DNA sequence: AGCGCTATCATTAGCCG
DNA sequence: GCGGCTAATGATAGCGC
């Protein structure tokens, strides 16, 4: 948050990531300490990283274990939270599914249309002059390019990981543009869920993401010129 | 840290203390989330307060318990684990990348070839008789179907186990065939790594997957009849 | 790699309705 | 007590050494 605003996503550059980690973990611990002091509350933070052999901990490891012990001894009230969490997750999943479904549908429609155009071209060619033939060829070519572009959106790794340190349980895979878009979507939903405060685990965590934007998934489709005029109406 | 700089000490005024707590705990959790996201590290924070009936926690309670458990057990062996984990993760990532790359390449080749056939058909149609025209049409249609099938492989949700049993921290999303395949691949690799059992975080979690098979990703391509004879040699 | 610098961005103390 | 506002302090990304 300085010379430039950084996107809330994994930092690709190794040295930059390490530097950021060092700086941020330090000030995070300071924040924990301040909170604890100013408000007289018990708090602890634990950060595992590939950069430190030992996890960063505040307050002292012993203190942490004590705080944690307290935390673990509340199985019943935790349930509520878990339920909420699951609910939110389901909402996220549903929204994602919708996007993927739509995207899929659009892709298939693109292909089908292109094929139709090809077939129509093949079958109706006898009646075309050179100009029309040339136009047809170019049109098909353009649409092929467009489809390839869409394929990229699905499968091309977005500018991301060299591959070392992703959060443990999340499968380490190259993020595609689609995945990046889905992640943004997720953040937005979690943000929406925020208003119901104490019951939501995420009520706080994701507030910061509110100025992130969901990449325009359908820009392509909303552009009427994308498909061009029908060739064989 | 605003209109006036406050001393780092317990705030005596009750309402002020509560207000400060609310604001600060919120941004603290945000910071934890940012650190975790930006640097790809595991982190958790727990804050007990008289203001909330439940402790504020990040990330989810379950996640926290997991992170904490890790912390409590091993003060010094932690490093070994991290190294091993990173190594395994890199291996998995690499293998997955290979598969995705190949799959992508194949897809694109299919499409390109089909387009070529279409274009060739369009341009060479004048010299074809009815029989050849019909064959061409059917060939294109077949290949379209094949491509659609491939699309399914990429994007269609695989028949999945009753949606509940997913490992905790894995975002609940519809798995595509590709994703299922990749997961199997990951399991196989993790299985290979397993022989040194309790040192890997994954050694247990994924054991259940060992009888899954990696679907024959390239069956389609190994079948020479898949492309059919070239139409315009 | 790590440290210091500083322009920018982010947090927040105090106030108001 | 809460949410919004703004001035002021705090955090930090990018750079140069």
UniProtKB/TrEMBL annotation, chains A, B:
Gene3D superfamilies: Transcription factor, MADS-box (3.40.1810.10). It comes from the Eukaryota. Keywords: DNA-binding, Nucleus, Transcription, Transcription regulation. It is found in: Nucleus. It holds the Pfam family SRF-TF. Residues 1-49 form the MADS-box domain. InterPro entries: MADS-box/MEF2_TF, SRF-like_MADS-box, TF_MADSbox, TF_MADSbox_sf. This is MADS-box domain-containing protein. It comes from Vitis vinifera (Grape).
């Amino acid at each position: 948050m300085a010379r430039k605003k950084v996107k809330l996503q994994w930092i690709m550059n190794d040295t930059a990531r390490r530097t950021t980690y060092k700086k941020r973990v330090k000030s995070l611990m300071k924040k924990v300490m301040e909170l604890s002091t100013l408000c007289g509350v018990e708090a602890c933070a634990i950060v595992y990283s590939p950069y430190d052999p030992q996890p960063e901990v505040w307050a002292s490891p012993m203190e942490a274990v004590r705080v944690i012990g307290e935390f673990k001894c509340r199985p019943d009230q935790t349930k509520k939270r878990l339920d909420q969490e699951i609910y939110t997750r389901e909402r996220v999943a549903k929204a994602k599914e919708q996007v993927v479904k739509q995207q899929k549908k659009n892709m298939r429609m693109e292909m089908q249309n292109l094929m139709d155009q090809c077939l129509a071209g093949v079958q109706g060619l006898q009646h075309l002059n050179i100009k029309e033939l040339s136009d047809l060829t170019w049109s098909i070519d353009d649409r092929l390019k467009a489809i390839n572009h869409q394929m990229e959106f699905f499968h091309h790794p977005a500018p991301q990981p060299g591959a070392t340190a992703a959060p443990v349980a999340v499968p380490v895979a190259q993020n595609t543009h689609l995945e990046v878009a889905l992640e943004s979507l997720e953040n937005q939903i979690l943000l929406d869920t925020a208003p119901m405060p104490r019951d939501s685990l995420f009520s706080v965590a994701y507030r910061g993401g509110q100025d992130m934007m969901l990449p325009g998934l359908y820009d392509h489709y909303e552009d009427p010129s994308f498909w061009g005029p029908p060739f064989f109406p």
